[in-house]
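Pasting as-is:
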Amino acid sequence: MVPDEPIQPWQPPTYAVDADGKVMGASPGSPNNWGRWGPHDQRGTANLLTPERVAAAARLVRSGRQFSLGLPIGRGQPNPGTRAAPVHLMTRSMADVVVGDVQLDIESSDDSVFMALQASTQLDAHAHFAHDHVLYNGYWAGVVTGRSGARRLGVHHHGGGIVGRGVLLDAARVGATDPFEGVIDAALLDATERDHGVEIGPGDIVLVRTGWLGAWLGDPALRVRRRNAGLAIDTIEWLAERDVAMVAADNRAVEAIPGPAHLPTLPFHIAALRDLGLLLGELFDLDELARDCASDGVYEFLFVAEPLPVVGAAGSPLNPLALK
């Protein structure tokens, strides 16, 4: 893994920052994991994905069925995010060689993709969100620059993969939530746990189905709507109490949009990424997995996802897999 470059001390208007980029005297919120894995930690709740938990999760694979939870990336695919849709271009094609437009001694194709790293199914790095100029574990937000990217908390710190016990909570089915207006609170997560016969525990990767993505993709007329169902702010404490390693959902932002008017914009992102160091996954395609889980009554599985190790990036595309 490429090491982080040194950070020079800097004195912003209202914060003193030490040589490691930590805000001196900053008071973390509650609940939070600042300092839990050391003062220089950059992986947050990924530290909960221990070899023992990975091995236990691997034993959940019994039938060999696998489900891709990632959206297709390519021409004509609708983009349910707020970023520009990915562009796929062929830089060399077999057809060019076959019809003689290109003279090569081999028949081969090559192509490129131009995309925002969070324009499809993706992982938020801890460098993605700050509040009051502070990132996870007390790092000053100024360590993320236009020139160097994230000099701390970049997505490359998760390049080794996110592997563990995955659990689907199909809140859309249990709570019959409106995919555009619904709010999934801690009480609904409790009810969904009971319905599925599962218990969320330390190091789990929790996938919450809101029903938003399937509705959005299924009806082009709905694609002008900007709201989405999602997690309420009270679920932060619920997730923290269970020591969850990652939470992902089939919507744009995991949390409900819009959030409470009296809180900052995207308060769940602040509490999850900044305070807990909790990994977030967005735009997960959960419908096929949900149908299978409802059919066999098994809502736990081996979860595997591999972020691109883009050094200093604030996020990465994913093609997550659930293996049952």
